[in-house]
Amino acid sequence: AGRIPTDKGLRFYYDSIEKLSSETKEESAEISLRRVAIIADIDRLLTGTTRLLAGLTRCLVIAEKPDLDKLKVKHISISPVTDHYLNVTVITELGVTKNSAVNATFDYDELSEFEKRVNEIVVGKRIQEIKEGLRNVTFENDSWYSERFERLFQFMENVFENENLDRYEKYGLEYILGSDKLSIKDMVSIAKYVENSRRLEDLMSELINSNEEVTLIGSEIGRNDLKSFSFLSSPYGNQHLKLGTVVVVTPKIIEYERILGYLRYGVNRLSEILSNR
Q1: C-beta separation of 160 from 131 below 8 A
Q2: % of the chain with per-residue pLDDT over 90
Q3: CB neighbours (10 Å) of residue 165?
Q4: Any idea what the Cα angle at residue 131 is, between residues 79 and 103, rounded to 5°?
Q5: All structural domains of the chain with their residue ranges
Q6: Contact 115/77 with Cβ under 8 angstroms?
Q7: What residues have CB less than 8 Å from 276, skipping those under 6 apart?
Q8: 94 CB contacts (<8 Å, ≥6 apart)?
Q9: Which helix (H) or strand (E) holds 235?
Q10: Could you give the dihedral angle defined by the CA atoms of residues 161, 165, 171 and 175, in that order, rounded to the nearest 10 degrees?
Q11: In angstroms, what is the C-alpha Rg of the chain?
């Protein structure tokens, strides 16, 4: 009594309860997730799911956004913003969107025709396929007038080659910072990862590259500054494709059966919603 369990002891406890844990059936969670499910835009869907899980678990939740390169383009919308810039919205399957501001180098009278031509080229293709095509394009023997084609090429290159470093939706850091199971040093350590996009990207790419549910406890994380934490992660996607991973970050001394139940329930519902789109 009064002893702090070792990481091996916590692992034994987790493995024991993991076999018994099933999807949580708490009415409040089910009702809340139904409300989130009606949101059409996947960014808002992820924001709602992340906030909901953080509130239910009282932990930090990090949701990886879908990799746009894997998704097919459904439509591109182009509209003028200023005399020199266009706003370009790429709408992909599942409702995932990508917005870019692109320098306008052609007459606005051509905009409708230009938008039509861009959609003819990219609709139905995966973004990765479009990027590879842009890298390999040549102007020889093209049926289009070369200057127009070059402007089209530059336009598409500007839209599709821009990378978004903010790949994670995160919420609940305040719950971690209020935990009586962590030291001030622990709190500072996790905050540094959450508030720095590059550090978070490095950490997540190292820890969540699995297509299966993974739980890392204390020293299993492999980083001395995070040895007081546990990371519970589970992938989500549609019927054909893994789209991302949801991670719950907790102090390592926690009610694992409760956290695991909420995580599984949330991820399963998220995957069901995306599979029905």
Answers
A1: yes
A2: 34
A3: 9
A4: 30
A5: 7-65+167-275, 69-160
A6: yes
A7: none
A8: 42, 66, 71, 238, 243, 274, 277
A9: strand 229-237
A10: 170
A11: 23
Q: Percent of the chain scored above 70 by pLDDT?
A: 75
**Residue 10 contacts by C-beta under 8 Å, 6 or more apart in sequence?**
217, 218, 230, 252, 253
Choose the most confident range, by mean pLDDT, from 34-48, 77-91, 255-269.
Answer: 255-269
Which amino acid, 40? A
Q: How far apart are CA 6 and CA 227, in angstroms?
A: 11
Q: Please enumerate in sequence order all residues whose Cβ is within 8 A of that of 96, keeping only pairs 6 or more positions apart, or say none.
A: 42, 43, 66, 68, 71
Where do runs of H (alpha helix) occur along the chain? 7-20, 27-37, 42-57, 111-122, 127-135, 146-160, 173-177, 184-195, 197-207, 256-275
Q: What are the tens digits of pLDDT across the range 77-133?
A: 988 888 778 888 888 887 677 777 887 666 666 788 888 888 988 899 998 888 888
What does CATH list as the number for 69-160? 3.30.390.60
Give the span between the Cα atoms of 59 and 247, in whole angstroms.
10
Residue 137 — pLDDT band, cuts 50, 70, 90? low
Residue 136 per-residue DSSP state: T
Tell me the β-bridge partners of 77. 89
Q: Which residue has the higher pLDDT, 234 or 45?
A: 234
Q: How far apart are CA 183 and CA 159, in angstroms?
A: 45
185, 191 Cβ separation under 8 angstroms: no
CATH class name, domain 7-65+167-275 = alpha beta
pLDDT of 23: 41
Q: In sequence order, which residues have a C-beta less than 8 Å from that of residue 37 and are 6 or more positions away?
A: 45, 269, 273
